[in-house]
TrEMBL record:
Lineage of the species this protein comes from: Bacteria, Pseudomonadati, Pseudomonadota, Alphaproteobacteria, Caulobacterales
Pfam families recorded: Acetyltransf_6
Domain of life: Bacteria
Protein name: GNAT family N-acetyltransferase
InterPro entries given in the database record: Acyl_CoA_acyltransferase, BioF2-like_GNAT_dom
Coiled coil (UniProt feature): none
UniProt source species: Brevundimonas goettingensis
Segments forming domain BioF2-like acetyltransferase: 154-297
Amino acid sequence: MTGTLEVEIIRPEALPPADETLWRAMLAADPALASPYFRPEFTRVAGAISPDAAVAVFKQDGKTVGFFPHQTRGGTIQPLGAPMNDYHGVVAFPGQGPDLETVARLLDAPRLRVSAWVGEAEATEERQTLMVSMPEDGFDVWYAERRTTWGKYFKDKERARRSLEAEQGPITVQRNLRDPALLDQLIALKREQYKRTGRHDIFDCGWTAELLHALLKTEGEDDFGASMAAMYAGGKLVAVEYSLHAGGRYHFWFPVYEPSLARCSPGILLSMDTMRLASEVGYRVFDFGFGGEGYKKYFCNAVQTVREAVVMRPGLSSGISNAAVGLLNAAGKRRGDRLRTSVRRRWAAIEACETTSMDRLKGAVEAAQVALSKGKARAAQRLADPAVSG
């Protein structure tokens, strides 16, 4: 980039119509920005709900060259909608936007924390998101290829479908649902899951659930929207998933299923049925986000590389120095980079959700207690059975 680069910080609702038109042109020019999270509609809705939301407008010699929607938590700048924003970066024409380090310098915050940065960056950790790139011929062609490649796995899921129907009754699947009561049911099930697994409850803060409800109301604005798909067996809800979609991309976001039916894989069956139904109306890329769940490797045939980083203001410690993170570190065994990464991500979710320092510290204390409990349980298991590894 040449010339003087400056930044103007505005509220999301103050974005002029001409800038929104430019924003859309930038998205159209760069396939790497195809995710619904980059759409101005997402910024508009999230900006009205997430506390301390803003858009950084980057200008070079007076000309707008990029946009970065973000939020501030304490001394940390994060992508707008974090921890639920699965893709973020500067919206710009290819090769014209500032890199991550320049963004951090211009925003002049103690920390800029990103988990899935799309764009240029230096000192970062690369991660990959997984997706299904479906052929133009649609679901049946994709499924035939997957079943040939992973025959045992998909035959098992076909048996699971038959078992679910035999045990519970006829299976029905509905897509494009926007019932607020169904969303409340999904959130309640998700919160139960967080409690069972000891993860931070991202819906406890309130604004995150409000954001999901608000996004459900955006259908009809261009081709951007949010909706749910649900699977019923014998009239009983057994799985539901909330997704974002724009253009030809469908982003699976919040899945949940009835845990007592896990042996029948209702969540996986719902994902397959959702892809089948959505492909019939033109969707061709189905984004599963980061890996971790084993089933994704059987589905996905494409990846996108993103970057995770915490950029510190010069002069500050390059480590994770927050006292709350120290609590989390102390709660587990220090096992090098893997533990450090886990602690960083756990703290990032707490920091993004909670909007006051006291609530952030409370979240860190609760997470530390969970980590200590898990550590004690593993130690007791090793004492009871020395063959069990740590």
